[in-house]
Amino acid sequence: MLSHPKFEFEVYMSSQAIDFPRVSVIGLGKLGAPLAAVMANGGYKVIGYDLNRDFVSAVQRGVAPVNETGLQDMINKVAARLTATEKIEVAVSNSDVSFIIVPTPSKPDGFFSLDYVLSAIEGMAPALRAKQSRHLIVVTSTVMPGATDGIIRQTLEKATGLKAGRDIGLCYNPEFIALGSVIHDMLHPDFILIGESDTTSGDCLEEIYKNTCAKEPVFRRMNAVNAELCKISVNTFVTTKITYANMLADICDRLPGADVDIVTTAVGADSRIGKKYLKGAVGYGGPCFPRDNRAFAALADSLGARSDLARATDAMNDYQVERLERCILGLVGEGARVSILGVSYKPLTAVIEASQGLMLGKRLVDQGVKVTAFDPGVATEGPATDGWLTWAETLPDALNGCDLAVVVTPWDAFNTLPALVPDQSKLTIVDPWRMFSGSEFGNSVTLVSLGRGRMDQNAL
Ligand SMILES: NC(=O)c1ccc[n+]([C@@H]2O[C@H](COP(=O)([O-])OP(=O)(O)OC[C@H]3O[C@@H](n4cnc5c(N)ncnc54)[C@H](O)[C@@H]3O)[C@@H](O)[C@H]2O)c1
Ligand SMILES: O=c1ccn([C@@H]2O[C@H](COP(=O)(O)OP(=O)(O)O[C@H]3O[C@H](CO)[C@@H](O)[C@H](O)[C@H]3O)[C@@H](O)[C@H]2O)c(=O)[nH]1
């Protein structure tokens, strides 16, 4: 269902196996499964472990346990070096380095929970205690600043009787990957972030990445708390940048003659700012970005520091759904039929966590609008919405009989819209990503491009 662009990982595949260190990956989910494959691709012998037996069985059979671009192709190539086990002690005793990549869900106070990480460490402890050689534990899950050298270290030392940094290595080593391009991002990282308990552990990780990345990456090595703060800072900074572009788009909506793309293209040409993640459109979603500013603010609160910027970014991101809703309600009346095109949080993924499309749909339904949704990447039965939403199986079905369609996720598939809209039907298309210029559609279609000032401000 999802299109899989080809990445050039084939040419980097190590031709010979590297006997040492052997790698285990604890948690074979959206991040862990690709990491296991990339480590095997770099030449390492890799053994995976997951509580989910289906994932273990999939890896044992050479099948990708999660849907990620290029993952199955890579698993096919590295099958001889990649295996999995249902026993955590087998994973630990057959490896020298363990990457822990289990969930760290947000708690109501904004902090990330360590329950899964600590439970994984406790599960590993008997096998770690029994080992004759020094093991390296690498926490890859996103954790709060202070966690690795705090409760994680204490739990590890208590459960194993080993001293971290002396008898056993402990590193924090988060990945900067985006879903849909995880393998590409792992092979071509901007930098590798290592928070280390000791130089030997940091050196070991550095050596691993020299073999697994497509070319020698930039390394940033530091203590764990700096690395933890760095990870969450990258995400909060980038979300603030996206939000800045969205704020400009909102202003441009209301400013006749203004065009947010022209403004952000020029602003992004300043090398201090840069053009990436500067598209004024809809709010950001997904499993990572929306929670990071809340965690950052919670951290600042706990320390007595101010976090106005993180809170403002979070609040402004919430406002983006309201902005879209207001625009749509200004264009259609109660009882109208609105189609939401795209509920995945971005193209090329089926993930619907913090989906702008679903949040918009709920708000519109609450206002008496009849809402249908379609997404090229989400299963045809649609997400569980307790029936408040009608799910269309195809794009033509979604357009059939609707008064307004809004492109919330800019899937390439929506470029076919002009060819699908029947000439005679009256339809308004709201285009926050400015995929269309207007000339593609016949006279029966009203195109509302957000982020471009219009003389008609009724819809805003
Ligand atoms: N997905 C991303 O884009 C992304 C990016 C950067 C960082 N992260 C971070 O990586 C971590 C994992 O995220 P994910 O998206 O891979 O999650 P996921 O839910 O897709 O996968 C986690 C896996 O861990 C397994 N698991 C849970 N407890 C376990 C245990 N005790 N032992 C073994 N396996 C266990 C689960 O069964 C699951 O398969 C989180 O901290 C997340 O914040 C994710
Ligand atoms: O100019 C942009 C770029 C992205 N987005 C939105 O931002 C969200 C996140 O997109 P993306 O960064 O592609 O995906 P994620 O998989 O969420 O990855 C982010 O979150 C991960 C988990 O922390 C980090 O590892 C990555 O570096 C970080 O990019 C999506 O809703 C996008 O639509 C925008 O709104 N405007």
UniProtKB/TrEMBL annotation:
GO terms for biological process: polysaccharide biosynthetic process. InterPro entries: 6-PGluconate_DH-like_C_sf, NAD(P)-bd_dom_sf, UDP-Glc/GDP-Man, UDP-Glc/GDP-Man_DH_C, UDP-Glc/GDP-Man_DH_C_sf, UDP-Glc/GDP-Man_DH_dimer, UDP-Glc/GDP-Man_DH_N, UDPglc_DH_bac. It holds the Pfam family UDPG_MGDP_dh_C. One of its GO terms (molecular function) is UDP-glucose 6-dehydrogenase activity. It comes from the Bacteria. Residues 339-438 form the UDP-glucose/GDP-mannose dehydrogenase C-terminal domain. It is an enzyme of class 1 (oxidoreductase). It catalyses: UDP-alpha-D-glucose + 2 NAD(+) + H2O = UDP-alpha-D-glucuronate + 2 NADH + 3 H(+). Pathway: Nucleotide-sugar biosynthesis; UDP-alpha-D-glucuronate biosynthesis; UDP-alpha-D-glucuronate from UDP-alpha-D-glucose: step 1/1. The active site is at C288 (nucleophile). NAD(+) binds at D50, T104, T142. SUPFAM superfamilies: 6-phosphogluconate dehydrogenase C-terminal domain-like (SSF48179), NAD(P)-binding Rossmann-fold domains (SSF51735), UDP-glucose/GDP-mannose dehydrogenase C-terminal domain (SSF52413). Its EC number is 1.1.1.22. Keywords: NAD, Oxidoreductase. NCBIfam families: NDP-sugDHase. Belongs to the UDP-glucose/GDP-mannose dehydrogenase family. This is UDP-glucose 6-dehydrogenase. It comes from Gimibacter soli.
